[in-house]
Specification:
178 residues, mainly alpha, binds protoporphyrin IX containing FE
């Protein structure tokens, strides 16, 4: 197999991972906001069930994406000022971290309810928290809070991309476009 990710820009696989995660996160936020408030008697059905399935898919894809990134690292855009370089490195690291942390907290919060999580509707994920564990209930609260932190960093990231595209008018955006 050839190395499809060249050293100085994102390859087709890295681009696919990026935009698949964007689509999954958009769906996950929409479902998370539209689904009923989770209480003691909430059932794992309808939008709630969709939230767990999309969440499991996000965890699966983000882990593959991180492995791909380790195997095929991409050099940062050479035209960036040092502060831009540092800001984007920190933002990207936080985006990866927050997505992984969000999925693990959501997983524990689902286990708190005693719900089964299925990857692509087939593979049942093991419980990482016992049903009713108080720390898993807290995990749900932290999950509900971190959604805003993740959203803030996504906003910062998108503003950064728009700044390069519309104001600096450099080629940075093209690195991630098809
Ligand atoms: C990055 C991925 C995820 C995002 C962006 C996300 C987003 C959200 C949002 C917006 C809510 C509604 C919070 C509210 O009512 O204010 C929520 C709640 C919830 N999510 Fe996620 N979620 C993600 C991953 C997951 C995963 C992987 C699972 C489980 C497999 C999960 C399980 C839950 C549960 C159980 C709740 C209810 C928590 C509670 O109220 O105690 N989420 N999530
Ligand atoms: C419309 C929305 C978005 C646009 C326009 C966009 C644009 C971009 C661009 C242009 C890059 C390349 C930056 C560079 O060359 O250094 C990039 C990288 C990245 N984006 Fe986004 N992005 C968007 C949404 C998101 C979302 C929602 C996430 C959440 C996880 C995300 C996570 C990342 C990460 C982690 C990288 C770094 C990739 C790496 O080097 O491993 N992006 N994005």
């Amino acid at each position: 197999m050839s190395n499809v990710t060249s050293r100085d820009t994102y390859g087709v696989v890295a681009k696919c991972f990026h935009w698949i995660i964007v689509a999954l996160l958009a769906a996950q936020y929409a479902v998370g906001w539209l689904m009923p408030h989770i209480g003691r008697n909430t059932k794992n059905e309808g939008l709630v069930s969709w939230h767990l399935s999309i969440g499991a898919a996000i965890l699966f894809v983000i882990l593959l994406r991180l492995l791909w990134r380790l195997a095929f690292p991409v050099t940062p855009d050479g035209t960036l000022a040092p502060w831009e370089h540092n800001a984007s490195r920190v933002t990207h690291a936080l985006l990866y971290t927050l997505v992984v942390v969000m999925t693990v907290l959501g997983w524990a919060a689902a286990n708190y309810q005693g719900w089964d999580i299925r990857l692509f509707g087939v593979v049942s994920l093991p419980a990482i928290a016992p049903t009713g564990a108080s720390w898993a209930h807290t995990a749900g609260d932290v999950h509900n809070f971190l959604q805003w932190v993740l959203l803030a960093f996504i906003g910062l990231h998108v503003v950064g991309a728009a700044y390069h595209y519309f104001i600096k008018r450099d080629q940075l955006m093209q690195r991630m476009l098809p």
